[in-house]
Amino acid sequence: MTNTEKIFSYIDTYAESTEMIYLEAAIEACEKWIAGDEMPRLEDGVSKEDIRRGIQLAVLKGMKQNAQPHHQMTPDSIGMLLGHIAGKLTAGEENITLFDPATGTGNLLFTVMNAIGNNVSASAVEIDDILTRLAAVTAELVEHSVTFYIQDALRPLMVDPVDITVSDLPVGYYPDDENALEYELMPSKGHAYAHHLFIEQSMKHTKPGGYALFIVPANLFESDQSTLLHPFLKKQTIIRAIIQLPESLFKNATHAKSILILQKPFPEMNKTQDVLLAKVPTMTDKKAMALFLQKMDAWAAE
Fold it and tell me: What is the tens place of the pLDDT at every residue in 19-33?
């Protein structure tokens, strides 16, 4: 068995041996591992990715047993692509700070942190208590410095501006119209789109010159509220890239996603640079993916 398999087996065996809800038991298994009371027997050289993936497998099993509409995990293939891009955008820099306003279990955030490497810290916001606890025990086991906030991320945040914001944005309407009135992207009629408000909130907490990497609906710029979004992005951000993800990653083409990369303006920056428009090839095509990543690396260097 690989270290990843051993970690999953340890958590799964513990969870199945209790009367607790699976995800609650998974948290308890990780807490015992942290305390040194019980732990998987791992081979030397266990990596942060081994630990993240092992816990991820257990979380995925737990989510299937107790399905909740907001309990969804960003696919590893997308997380690793965002991690690759973030790593290239921060190459050669030290003490990188990250922010995820919709952290969930932290799988996307930790994938990106692992890709960037050492000297990286993060702020993470999540309204769901159990998802935050899962993310917190994972952060401790992979030894990443993360400050967690359990709250509505669209309320005022005590988060300092960061180098990179990364998030798989929650999609849908935001029900708190009174709070949404504080945002430019609140429409004159009806509810605001939560994913629009998350973009606006995220840019407030990104440093000038910093980047925001969002997973967004593929039809983001075609929705009925896009007439508000377009001028906001033009005024408050620089759109650096729109990357279409393969439809094969999604069960239904209507749920297709893209990666939106924004940069927060600063006085000396070049605002006229072209927007990169790209389409990720089928990820099982190794040659096509290698060429695509070369293109992304050249774009990031430029």
Answer: 999 999 999 999 999
